[in-house]
């Protein structure tokens, strides 16, 4: 049984008898995925932010195939241990944004629009206590 992640499995996998397309080669894994698509697939599968070799990300990342870890400061390399091109973010906090890419905007809800009305001082009924929001207060 192979230990390669799904984006790397395919006709070129060990034991399949087919020619192997190497790390970073177009069509790697026999699925015809681009590196960006492979990172998206790994992110969906692992539930962690994923990046591909060549992206400039300052973060602690781990290879999705062999778990080799690096503290990356520039462009992501191919994994020096196994040749994989997909890396998962291992740090805590917000997802690092690769240099040259803007932040991903959250999807807009379909129900947001002109039908939304904001009112202040409206009672929500019952014996609910009133809530007052004050800004600019310092807690020492």
Question: Could you describe the 3D structure shown?
Answer:
There is one protein chain. This protein has 140 residues and is mostly loops. The protein has a domain at 1-10 and 34-93. Helix content is 9%, strand content 11%. The chain contains one helix and four strands; from the N terminus they run H-E-E-E-E. It has one helix at residues 35-46, and strands spanning 50-52, 59-63, 69-72, 86-89. A four-stranded antiparallel β-sheet has the order 1-4-2-3, with helices on one face. A hairpin with a 5-residue loop joins strand 2 (59-63) and strand 3 (69-72). The protein is elongated. The termini are far apart. The model is unreliable at 11-30 (pLDDT under 50).
How is this fold's topology laid out?
Blueprint: H1 35-46, E1 50-52, E2 59-63, E3 69-72, E4 86-89
Antiparallel strand pairs: 1-4, 2-3, 2-4
Number of helices: 1
Count the beta strands: 4
Cα(first) to Cα(last) distance is: 61 Å
Beta-strand percentage range: 5-15%
Overall form: elongated
- The portion of residues assigned to helices is under 10%
The strands making up the biggest β-sheet line up spatially as 1-4-2-3
- What is the overall pLDDT average? 75
Give the biggest sheet. Answer: 4 strands, antiparallel
SSE string: HEEEE
Low-confidence spans: pLDDT under 50, at least 5 residues?
Answer: 11-30
Rg: 23 Å
The secondary-structure class comes to little secondary structure
């Amino acid at each position: 049984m192979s230990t390669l992640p799904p984006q790397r499995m395919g006709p070129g996998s060990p034991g399949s008898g087919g020619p192997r397309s190497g790390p970073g080669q177009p069509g790697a894994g026999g699925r015809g995925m681009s590196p960006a698509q492979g990172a998206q697939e790994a992110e969906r599968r692992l539930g962690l932010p994923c990046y591909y070799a060549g992206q400039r990300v300052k973060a602690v990342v781990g290879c999705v195939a062999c778990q080799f870890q690096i503290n990356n400061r520039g462009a992501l390399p191919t994994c020096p241990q196994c040749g994989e091109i997909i890396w998962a973010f291992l740090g805590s906090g917000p997802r690092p944004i690769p240099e040259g890419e803007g932040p991903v905007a959250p999807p807009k809800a379909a129900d947001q629009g002109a039908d939304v009305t904001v009112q202040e001082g409206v009672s929500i009924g019952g014996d609910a206590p009133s809530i007052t929001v004050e800004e600019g207060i310092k807690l020492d």
